[in-house]
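Appendix C reproduces, verbatim, an entry submitted by the partner laboratory led by Prof. M.T., so that reviewers can inspect both the input and the predicted structure.
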Amino acid sequence: MTQHRFPEGFLWGASTSAFQVEGGYDEGGKGPATTDRGPGRPGIADNKIASDHYHHWREDVDLMAELGIKVYRMGFAWSRIMPDASGDPNPEGLAFYDQLIDYLLERGIEPLVTLYHFECPSALVETFGGWKSRKMIDFYVRYAEICFTHFKGRVKRWVTVNEQLIATSAPSNTGDTETDPRQRQKNAYQMSYHVALAEHRAIACLRQIDPDAQIGPVVAMQVVNPRTSASADVLAAMNAEEMMQNYLLDLSVRGDISPYARYYLEREGFYPVVECGDHDILVATRPDFLGVNYYFSNCAHERTEPIRFDRFPPWSGGDFELCDNPAIAPTEWMSNGIDPLGLRVGMRKLYDRYQLPMIVTENGMALSESLDEENRVHDAVRIEYLSRHLGEVEELIREGYPVFGYCVWSLMDLCSSHQGFTKRYGLLYVDRTETDAKQCARFRKDSFFWYQDVIRENGLPC
């Protein structure tokens, strides 16, 4: 029995990313990628095998069908489709995704495909510096064109870039080896500008190739609360949201940035190099939807110490300083704690600013887990986390906001960007350790069965 039902056609889903689940790093003609090393620490799993989805894909799709999801938010590995700097597609890479996409459709599951989820072909970094160079824009558009053409009619929704905030600031993703702190910051802002240009050109490309398909960015949604009610802290929280989220999304959606973002970048010497004609590219297209990733809120206060340019943006701060929220207790893997209402607060702000339909593309709870004697995982804490956040999605819809889907992060345990398999998010337990991949067998957690019931009833239980 359910208290409230979600709208008919609501897209219940689950998410993964290619580099965190696929493995098969040197199979099928795949080229090296910036993310192949994973956390890069002794005793922590890397992405070379990951969850071994490359060899378990059919079983994984069958489990998705059993779960009942309507959409699978997945990623293509750029380095599997374009393994080198020639710009030529890899037939084996396309064939792998052909079989996966076709079987998803056969099982009644819509693929929502992310083109760029942190994973960058190493050849492009080694040849011309990756996103630091404008050459990267042409390679991304070529990659997008290959995908749009090859999967036309089968993939109806595309994601341009996942979490540009992380994609262009973490050297493990970009391959940037710059050691000077201020130059590294400048590089990050230049890369984010190039990514935005690439996004808009890709949108224009899709409009030509498959005008019935939709496309949009995925944002790492930033809900920044002021530490106190003092106006200085309120302003600091506004500045944090501006530079951690709005600056990037304004470029991706509106094609321009706010006066404050422009002021900050010019003041610090970080304003990107702009070429003639760029503005026309940035304002010529507009995304169809906005994907939202949300795990926790942030907190900020007035800056009292010098900006830490030795930290990667935006954690270096700016006209704000991030801090712990005194009203929220931390968890094992989430130092910011759990704030379900923040999901509704942030998505309201996003819709008011951009007026785009929204889908929650990532929302999940990290736990340290192991199988019990009956090969079960009793993850009641995760179920509570998901239930409370889905309750806020329900409220958003009731308030009239256009939220058309929700994807749990993640379908299965995957290789965390920093903690390998010690930190687990999945509805499915992947049986492997940090140093022994074993068979990567899948086991259904309690949350799998709970989510299955939610989907079946199209709503939360009373």
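The first helix runs from residue 18 to 21. Additional entries are available on request from the coordinating office.
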